[in-house]
């Protein structure tokens, strides 16, 4: 069985929803894989939301490991030095040394992974833009798209590297942000209407975010399925197709659009 390592801070409902979605696809036979461990950089009793996450993990009987990054940082005593992060990652790898996952997923894991850990594991992460799209948080990405008057965007799974959001694309999908229902909101933005709401209440911002969210869970599932079926593999910081060629990302747009039409999440 294809083994997946799961890294999550478990800080919100989305973290629980994603884990449940993946496990549901495993139980239904759509995703022929298993989660070999769950790791969190929080420990029980540290936060209400992460405790709910731990309860879910225990309900499913999944092996769980944790090491509080907040406690580790406090003990290290040097808040400004990057050394605590290197030592923290080494502590994580020590706890996980008995596991041999084929791929690891950062699923709301709120730490940047260092070089040693990237070398130890092939890790993938979600980014709310297509390959070549804007870097940054999902909020930053959307505003950059609006400022650039972009025609389309997407969602991407990429290999994790120490340089944030710079890893090679693994799989992605794209979707247009022009045409209906987008155009009516673009008109207000391009006219610089003083009545146009700012911030996350901007209707164009909210619509782009909504369309991206519809595709995030289906893309994660489709990417894991592609790995488990050996259509793609990650090795030495590169992504390979089934025929052994280095690929610039597996375009799953058609598959994801079908999932969106079915209302999959």
Structure in words:
With 265 residues, the chain is of the alpha/beta class. The chain has 2 domains: 121 residues, Formyl transferase, N-terminal domain (Rossmann fold, 3-Layer(aba) Sandwich), CATH 3.40.50.170; 141 residues, 3-Layer(aba) Sandwich (Rossmann fold). It has 9 helices and 10 strands. The chain has an 8-stranded mixed β-sheet. A two-stranded antiparallel ribbon has the order 8-9. A hairpin with a 2-residue loop joins strand 8 and strand 9. Helix 1 packs parallel to helix 2, helix 6 crosses helix 8 and helix 8 packs across helix 9. The radius of gyration is 19 Å and the shape is globular. About 2% of the residues have low confidence.
Topology of helices and strands:
Blueprint: E1 2-7, H1 13-27, E2 33-40, H2 48-59, E3 64-66, H3 69-76, H4 83-95, E4 103-106, H5 115-120, E5 123-127, H6 138-147, E6 152-159, E7 169-176, H7 183-190, H8 203-228, E8 232-235, E9 238-241, E10 250-251, H9 253-261
Parallel strand pairs: 1-2, 1-4, 2-3, 4-5, 7-10
Antiparallel strand pairs: 5-6, 6-7, 8-9
Helix pairs in contact: 1-2, 6-8, 8-9
* End-to-end C-alpha gap: 23 Å
Helix and strand element order: EHEHEHHEHEHEEHHEEEH
How many strand segments? Answer: 10
Strand order of the largest sheet: 3-2-1-4-5-6-7-10
User: Could you list the spans in which at least 5 consecutive residues all have pLDDT below 50?
Assistant: 193-197
Number of helices: 9
CATH class bucket of the largest domain: Alpha Beta
Main sheet record = 8 strands, mixed
CATH architecture of the largest domain: 3-Layer(aba) Sandwich
How big is the Rg? Answer: 19 Å
Mean pLDDT: 91
Strand coverage percent: 15-25%
What is the CATH third-level topology name of the largest domain?
A: Rossmann fold
Question: Share of helix among residues?
Answer: 40-55%
Q: What is the global morphology? A: globular
Provide the number of structural domains: 2
Fourth CATH level, the homologous superfamily of the largest domain: Formyl transferase, N-terminal domain
Secondary-structure content class: alpha/beta
